[in-house]
């Protein structure tokens, strides 16, 4: 699973989901889906999100190790 820190980064900047969506060029629903792990963004979108936050992509997204059952 790819974890993200979008909600935290938005809160640090006091941005709403709508504001981030406008800056990135996607719908608010897309941001909601990414934050709730219902949608994994494309690599291009992931880089765009990181660029909007002015951080490295690894500061936004990280792969979580799969747990053995």
UniProtKB/TrEMBL annotation:
Q: Which UniProt keywords apply?
A: DNA-binding
Annotated Pfam families: HTH_3
Q: Where is the HTH cro/C1-type domain?
A: 6-60
Keyword DNA-binding in the entry? The reply is yes
Q: Does the keyword DNA-binding apply?
A: yes
> What is the superkingdom listed in this entry's lineage?
Bacteria
InterPro entries reported in the protein's UniProt record: Cro/C1-type_HTH (IPR001387), Lambda_DNA-bd_dom_sf (IPR010982)
Return the protein name.
HTH cro/C1-type domain-containing protein
What organism is this sequence from? Enterococcus diestrammenae
């Amino acid at each position: 699973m790819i974890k993200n820190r979008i909600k935290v980064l938005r809160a640090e900047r006091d941005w709403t989901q709508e504001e981030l969506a406008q800056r990135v060029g996607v719908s608010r629903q897309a941001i909601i889906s990414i934050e709730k792990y219902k949608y994994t963004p494309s690599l291009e979108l992931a880089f765009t999100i990181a660029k909007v936050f002015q951080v490295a992509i690894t500061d936004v997204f990280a792969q979580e190790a799969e747990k053995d059952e």
